Predict the structure.
Amino acid sequence: PYSVAAGATKRVGFAMVGGTSLQNCVNAARTAQRFWVQRLGNILIPTSVKDVAAGIPESFDLAQNYPNPFNPSTTIRYALPEAAKVNLSIYNVLGQRVAELTNEVQSAGFYNALWNGRNRTGAQVATGVYFYRIEAKPVDGSEPFMSIKKMLMLK
């Protein structure tokens, strides 16, 4: 914050920036700073950049489902630090896909997926061990993230 004396004026420029990652936002902020310095000359420039986007995770993550064991449904949480094509699927112990919870491009953030314990045809699955697998392919072509976790359906 800064003060302006009564009757005085101060030229102020600001920019709201966004991006798919913290680094992307930092780069956009630096571009905005250059823009305003070129147009206004001597302006107040921040000396640091803070990550105020608490809703954007720092890394990919697949959390353990809850509740586990479950009946009849469970929640699967995952985190995307950048936009990615996400496939989240459920598999039985034979490695057969029984359900696909999501298969789409999603922006950076924290997500919850609910599995109702039903297969692709809508039938209730049997009691037993199931696996959930996430594959997130960043839209910028960087290294994909893949993780598998185990859960137990009890009737």
Notes: The two ends are 60 Å apart (CA to CA).
